[in-house]
């Protein structure tokens, strides 16, 4: 099997995004943090693959069509006739975006280490998962850790975004499993909010120190509209946010991860990859939905050029 720059593991979810606040108008799109990330990586030029379970339903088939269109290899996707593909709704209001989920018992939550597509996994140069990938079930958490262990055994890089969702699991469990994943991470992508909750520290530099102590080799601390701080343990660089006409922040952090990992695969150093990803994530917020507004490299380069 041909090698992939990047493989992701997680839960895809069909998205219904409210485009007119206060009105029942919803745009159907695609979501799920690691699926968003892998599409962003593919659009930024990486060779990609995805591993999950889908329901034998119309929404699952939509995802297979999406990944085929985006050039994401889906040979590692399994169809589960006994479960459904997850769904979520996004509403927009004065406090930002609000999510409602229909994911309990989803096909992706039934992932187990024994079911992992080993041939596809062995072909990856870097594997990525998130805290959500782990939080959806105990067996999915075991699958993520098994994938990370296998990647370390083959010399592949490990990438992890904690993407903390306390509606899915209690903080104590999240801290324990995130610590186990972070200890194996070559690239760690926490938001400042997640880092504060996980570490108990408020200061961004202290949170970076905490992340490196956990074992993460390279850390990209996402600051939302304020930008990102990239650290390789010896050097830190704060990259300011880019002002755009933002309408929807859904999936911006996922876009950042995918764009950064694609540029790292292309040979950029950590700081150049972070600058590119910062611009890509800003552009993603200018349209509705987690996937449709993910930019292509030409648009990112134009924004960076000013």
| Total count of helical runs of at least 4 residues | 11
| Mean pLDDT over the full residue set | 95
Q: Which CATH architecture? A: 3-Layer(aba) Sandwich
Assign the CATH topology. Answer: UDP-N-acetylmuramoyl-L-alanine:D-glutamate ligase
Radius of gyration: 18 Å
Order of helices and strands: EEEHEHEEEHEHHEHEHHEEEHHH
CATH class: Alpha Beta
Strands, total number: 13
Question: What's the SSE blueprint?
Answer:
Blueprint: E1 6-9, E2 13-18, E3 26-31, H1 33-43, E4 48-55, H2 58-70, E5 72-80, E6 86-93, E7 96-102, H3 118-122, E8 126-130, H4 131-135, H5 138-154, E9 157-161, H6 171-182, E10 187-188, H7 192-199, H8 204-213, E11 218-222, E12 227-231, E13 236-240, H9 252-265, H10 270-284, H11 297-305
Parallel strand pairs: 1-4, 1-8, 2-6, 4-5, 8-9, 9-10, 10-11
Antiparallel strand pairs: 2-3, 6-7, 11-12, 12-13
Walkthrough of the structure:
It is a single chain. It is globular, with a radius of gyration of 18 Å. α7 packs across α8, α9 (252-265) packs antiparallel against α10 and α10 packs across α11 (297-305). With 306 residues, the chain is of the alpha/beta class. It is 39% helix and 25% strand. The mean pLDDT is 95. The protein has a nine-stranded mixed beta sheet with strand order 5-4-1-8-9-10-11-12-13, with helices on both faces. A four-stranded mixed beta sheet has the order 3-2-6-7. The chain has eleven helices and 13 strands. It has a single domain (6-305), classed as UDP-N-acetylmuramoyl-L-alanine:D-glutamate ligase (3-Layer(aba) Sandwich).
